[in-house]
Design goal:
Blueprint: H1 2-7, E1 14-15, H2 16-19, H3 24-34, E2 43-44, H4 54-63, E3 67-68, E4 71-72, H5 74-77
Parallel strand pairs: 1-2
Antiparallel strand pairs: 3-4
The structure holds a DNA duplex (13 and 13 nucleotides).
DNA sequence: GTGATGACGGAAA
DNA sequence: CTTTCCGCCATCA
């Protein structure tokens, strides 16, 4: 799970549901626990909205993640967890 | 063992 | 498109 999160390249994002389809909430809890060492900012909700806050958005924009209003353009930035490895 | 909660997701109105 | 409601599995009190 965390392995996938780490495999997400800069400029792209994945979703909690991708990392843990059976318990997406659990994925979030794990990320929080993981803290640093994982690009947690590249993990967003399935609809592209952010879960953490402004901090996350800044990081994503800095990496060139396309935004549409308050949400990420999943069509462009979403990389399915399956493709990570 | 039980009940409540959460960095979520999908369906319905 | 937005707002509501229920289900999911693991943790914690």
């Amino acid at each position: 799970m965390l392995r996938r999160a780490r495999a997400v390249p800069a400029g792209f994002v994945t979703t909690y549901g991708d990392l843990c389809p059976k318990a997406p909430r659990f994925a979030g809890a794990v990320m929080s626990n993981a803290g640093d060492g994982v690009p947690w900012h590249r993990v967003v909700r399935a609809d592209g909205s952010l879960a953490v806050g402004e901090r996350q958005r800044r990081r994503l924009e800095a990496e060139g993640v396309p935004f549409r209003g308050a949400r990420v353009e999943m069509e462009r930035a979403w990389v399915p967890a399956e493709r990570l490895g």
